[in-house]
């Protein structure tokens, strides 16, 4: 009898672990990164480095496309911010978003205009 109970509990535990490993977070974070090149001339930040940060840890990194767009998929539930850097004509532009949370099948759009680093 004890063996049957043990094997049932072991089977339930194993199935729980397998199920948890197979479920993926469907959270998506995307947006557009721009910068003000010359007093009001806002342009897409092509090739900007974009980091998804939680606390002080870099979670994911990507680069923007030719339109300044970026995307992070399969993001775990949690609290994050976006940090981006772009170098244009020997000038460095940086930016950091306000904090935000994702949970469940969340989709967030976080646009960011970078400022000239002084």
Describe, in plain words, how this protein is organized in 3D:
The protein is an alpha+beta fold and 118 residues long. It has a single domain (25-116), classed as Immunoglobulins (Immunoglobulin-like, Sandwich), CATH 2.60.40. The protein has one helix at 2-22, and strands spanning 27-36, 42-44, 49-54, 57-63, 69-75, 78-88, 91-96, 100-102, 107-109, 112-116. The longest helix is centred in the N-terminal third of the chain and has 21 residues, at 2-22. The radius of gyration is 21 Å and the shape is elongated.
Topology-level CATH name: Immunoglobulin-like
CATH superfamily: Immunoglobulins
Termini distance? 74 Å
**Broad shape:** elongated
Question: SSE string, helix = H, strand = E?
Answer: HEEEEEEEEEE
The average pLDDT value, as a whole number, equals 85
Tell me briefly what this model is:
With 118 residues, the chain is an alpha+beta fold. It has one helix at residues 2-22, and strands spanning 27-36, 42-44, 49-54, 57-63, 69-75, 78-88, 91-96, 100-102, 107-109, 112-116. It has one domain (25-116): Immunoglobulin-like (Sandwich), CATH 2.60.40.10.
